[in-house]
Write a structure and sequence with these properties.
alpha/beta; Rossmann fold; N-(1-d-carboxylethyl)-l-norvaline Dehydrogenase, domain 2; 8 strands
Length: 300
């Protein structure tokens, strides 16, 4: 019988919209989790679901057999992995470091090099989903890095991920996350144009969305957005500003690999327009509101 005493000790840095559900699943599975975040209220939220709390990145890393992080951007990941109190300096010998962030392959490769020099196994475990699917424990996990380390942490990834892919030993997980998010952003742009075209053509809003969800284009992403769009609810699960960050990563990867991404560049401009109108913190599907304004549609 597996007991909490026999399970590896877990650290988790970054207890935001995605991090909190992940640590809750780990705690429910019996793991002893120590949580760290620069925002005290997030650490308190983690305590409420069964975690211990610590104030420093180094303190979190030094206690962990397996350390997770969920960072908002390249700069944040670079910060927590650098310096005398950073993850790589304070890690215990033999620790496995699992990062779930959406960051550039270039920055991730730098972290990988420094982790290898420190004798730390570094697993990139990007996730596809949102806070709702994270709470339900049905994220899609796309991992790369040392295979032995991935196999060791797979039981932990299983606590919040329903579907798993191992892609290779390098930055494959970072690249596939950008590929997926490119399609998410493009879908939001196309869905907005299609809805406004139908709206101006006299179609009923609710019936149009119902048909979209049940038609050949009714992907899981489209169907996830149908209920809030029925109510014209743009409360953020993933904001326009977060999408701007990811689109910049995508375009940067395109530049680095000489891959032209003209449609993606246009979608990026749409999000600039959303941000300029003070709506960057709305959900990324607020592309619909932007298209309505561009088409002269009175918004309800």
């Amino acid at each position: 019988m597996t007991t909490s005493a026999s399970l590896p000790k877990v650290g988790f840095i970054g207890i935001g919209k995605m991090g909190l559900p992940m640590v809750e699943h780990l705690c429910r599975a019996g793991y002893q989790v120590t949580a760290c975040d620069r925002i005290a209220a997030y650490v308190e939220a983690a305590r409420q679901v069964g975690c211990q709390g610590t104030e420093t990145v180094g303190g979190c890393a030094s206690q962990a057999d397996i350390l997770f992080s969920s960072m908002p951007n390249d700069a944040a990941l670079a910060t927590i992995t650098s310096g005398a109190d950073g993850v790589l300096a304070r890690a215990k010998p033999g620790m496995i470091y699992v990062d779930t962030s959406t960051v550039s392959p270039a920055l991730s490769a730098e972290v990988a090099q420094r982790a290898a020099a420190a004798g730390i196994a570094y697993v990139r475990a990007t996730v596809s989903g949102n806070p709702v699917t994270a709470r339900a424990g049905v994220l899609t996990v796309m991992a790369s890095g040392p295979r032995k380390a991935y196999d060791s942490v797979k039981p932990l990834l299983d606590t919040f991920g329903k579907t798993h892919f191992y892609l290779g030993t390098g930055e494959e997980a970072r690249v596939i996350k950008l590929v997926i998010n490119l399609m998410v952003a493009g879908t939001a742009g196309i869905m907005a144009e299609a809805l406004v075209l139908g709206e101006k053509g006299g179609l009923d809003w609710k019936q149009m969305l119902d048909i979209m969800g049940k038609s050949a284009v009714g992907s899981p992403l489209v169907n996830y957005k149908v209920p809030p769009l029925l109510e014209r609810d743009y409360t953020s699960t993933f904001s326009g500003m977060q999408m701007i960050k990811d689109l910049d990563l995508i375009l940067g990867q395109g530049a680095a690999t000489q891959t032209p991404l003209p449609l993606t560049a246009l979608v990026r401009q749409h999000y600039d327009a959303i941000a300029a109108q003070g709506e960057g913190e709305l959900d990324y599907i607020a592309t619909v509101r932007l298209m309505e304004r561009m088409a002269g549609v009175k918004q309800s």
